[in-house]
Amino acid sequence: xxxxxxxxxxxxxxxxxxxxxxxxxxxxxxxxxxxxxxxxxxxxxxxxxxxxxxxxxxxxxxxxxxxxxxxxxxxxxxxxxxxxxxxxxxxxxxxxxxxxxxxxxxxxxxxxxxxxxxxxxxxxxxxxxxxxxxxxxxxxxxxxxxxxxxxxxxxxxxxxxxxxxxxxxxxxxxxxxxxxxxxxxxxxxxxxxxxxxxxxxxxxxxxxxxxxxxxxxxxxxxxxxxxxxxxxxxxxxxxxxxxxxxxxxxxx
Length: 252
Ligand SMILES: Cc1cc2nc3c(=O)[nH]c(=O)nc-3n(C[C@H](O)[C@H](O)[C@H](O)COP(=O)(O)O)c2cc1C
Description:
The chain is α+β, with helices and mostly antiparallel strands. The chain contains twelve helices and four strands, in the order ααβαβααβαβαααααα. The chain has a four-stranded antiparallel beta sheet, sandwiched between helices.
């Protein structure tokens, strides 16, 4: 296939994968993906990130409960992506320089670096035919993950990429139309009717309506606020993550 057509096809059809074949991708393939992905933009070219690749069965078993054993966490490879100011600080220290990154700006820079790297890994891996899924549960259980992976101070796990050869097909999910999220020059003031029209792509979808019914809710938004992301979850996990960041040596 013409490479340009291949790229269009890839971007148009991309989706997360949560079911994988048992056979893990070869370590050399993962390394090749990471070598390409490292061309992602990063803050001042400091590369304030690190990744821990887990493929050992015992280690995978130890990590999965931190991801609530959700389906994608059963992948044969888990790549924990970390915001990491420690290695750069170490370089400063051995170079007679005084680093100052344990503040909100340093943390934000490292989280952005790690996120851009993660997206680049995702794109390269998927273009090579692998399936991936980002596990946001990483920031819910950062202390447990840090313990399994021996993460030192200055290193914060921000997400985990589940990776492997896809098993079966996964349906692509909907996106908001461009006008809902891409604005020209200034931020628009949406009326209630505008919001309803823009979110119709989600609200009117048969499978989403089924989801609303199954959860005994009146609207899809209520499924997000009351079932998927309730404050009763996000509040205690926020406190837990903040405590982890403080323990990791960041001044917030
Ligand atoms: C920050 C973040 C956290 C996510 N956490 C999870 C997760 O814990 N479990 C999961 O199955 N998918 C997770 N995902 C994947 C999203 O659910 C998925 O990208 C989204 O529904 C859009 O689907 P698509 O990637 O197939 O287009 C996460 C994605 C992001 C960016």
